[in-house]
Amino acid sequence: MKDIPYESIDTFADETARGFSDYATHTAFKLFRNRKFRSLAGFATLSQSEQDRIFNELVSAFVTLIMLLLEAPDLHSRREFGDYLDQLKTKIPVALLAMFEEMGIEAEHRLEYSKLIELRYEEYAKDKHEVRKAAMEIESSENRLNVKSLSEIQVLVPVQSVAIGCHHYVCRGETEGKDELFKVLLKELAKFYLFLRIRLEGGRMTLLTRIRAKVMAWFRR
Fold first, then answer.
1. Which distant-in-sequence residues (6+ apart) come within 8 Å of 128 by Cβ?
2. What would the pLDDT profile of 127-140 be if each residue is shown by its tens digit?
3. E-strand spans in 121-212?
4. What Cα–Cα distance (Å) separates residue 27 from each residue in 83, 130, 133, 138, 185?
5. Is 5's pLDDT higher than 60?
6. CA distances (Å), 86 to each of 65, 68, 94, 124, 218, in order?
7. What is the pTM of this model?
8. Which sign, positive or negative, has the C-alpha torsion 136, 142, 144, 146?
9. Which of 26, 75, 209, 221 has the least C-beta neighbours within 10 A?
């Protein structure tokens, strides 16, 4: 990448950010329209404004997850393309807002989205430390804490952090008795996260593919 002009790298980052943002929005909308999700979230009794708020939380969750993925310290591609990934991370919310502008969304609402994404990113990034600590304590209590389990914990921390936070906001903090809703959120976020991460890693048969198989097995129980 050193031999490629900066303008070309910057343009490529813009295009990639647009693609990632579009994919995040599409995935969020697909989950938003999912019958099981809507039933578990009680959409039948929710106002249109409340449903819109939930959709905004879903979009911010998927977008934030991309940003956390791009900055993950254990991402192998960071060794060679760290600067590019950092640049790409900053372009993700910008690309999303540009896409919303093209869709005719008013500047006031775009500003609200910008603030929401910034707030959720800061919060979920901070929560990663508590999520990692809790996961390590669980593994340790079951006498399974080793290099392999630590690697799996590290990989899954971002998606777990976002899932917990998103579940909290979708439910307005009233999460008791809504474990099934959390499972739906976690499943979709995990699929999205692992799909992108495996491709960023070049699609190699590594720890990631084993983790994906393990995670999908959890949800088939």
1. 68, 157, 158, 161
2. 766 665 554 444 44
3. none
4. 27, 27, 29, 31, 11
5. no
6. 14, 10, 14, 17, 32
7. 0.83
8. positive
9. 221
